[in-house]
């Protein structure tokens, strides 16, 4: 009894645990090429944890979207793999052999049609269809299915998705700064322009604040009179429906395909072939007009990035005009 009690109450030996090595902040994040797509919060959270372990404050004071931009710059390859949905190899093969896949119904239908005719000729059955024969009824159904496959293949080949590619804006390069803009505000506006042209498909930027055009930069429409860049009429633009609707909603307005919107006539200062447009309110006193060269070229991250830049410009411009 005493022996069994001592055996039962004896402490079990504890296994020795080896401390896990701390991850190093290198050129790659722990997301491989074959890992499932990770949410934005997971990617940013891993980066913040790595910074905390390394004892650096690189991830402090920045929002998730700002960190994503930094991660794309420092770890561009790995971040794109982490945020990009994983493609199946079948989908990749179909994309690379689009014409062949669209021709498969024609090939199957033609082969079935030839097989039915050869079977009819070799089997010794009369060439004239006889409804009383089960073989004849099966051949008629097979011929109908074969013709249907051939027609479906012809439809697939005739209907193809339109490829979207950037265009070269037709206009004149310009850089105009409105009156009353301080040096600090001008530096902030130029920083915003450089950021947008580097990270997005932005080719034109017009900032209207306090009833005046504070910045017109990028490609602008040419004036039919002297051939120079067309000046922005801020007062006429403010009276338009695009400006009023954006300021009333106080939300970003994204026109993914500008050619489909009749309101583009209110933007004569932009190039005629501007493909996409973002109207971003700058606080309660202004708006930023961002023109792109690609249909649906601004992603959801780009839209959030532009909204953050507008908040920063509002704080800077309000101080500049109040002082």
UniProtKB/TrEMBL annotation:
Coiled-coil ranges per UniProt: none
Top-level taxon: Eukaryota
Biased composition (Pro residues): 12-21
Transmembrane segments: none
Record-linked InterPro entries: CCB2/CCB4, CCB4
Region (Disordered): 1-21
One Pfam short name: CCB2_CCB4
PANTHER family (alphabetical): PROTEIN COFACTOR ASSEMBLY OF COMPLEX C SUBUNIT B CCB4, CHLOROPLASTIC, PTHR34943
Protein name in the entry: Protein COFACTOR ASSEMBLY OF COMPLEX C SUBUNIT B CCB4, chloroplastic
Organism: Urochloa decumbens
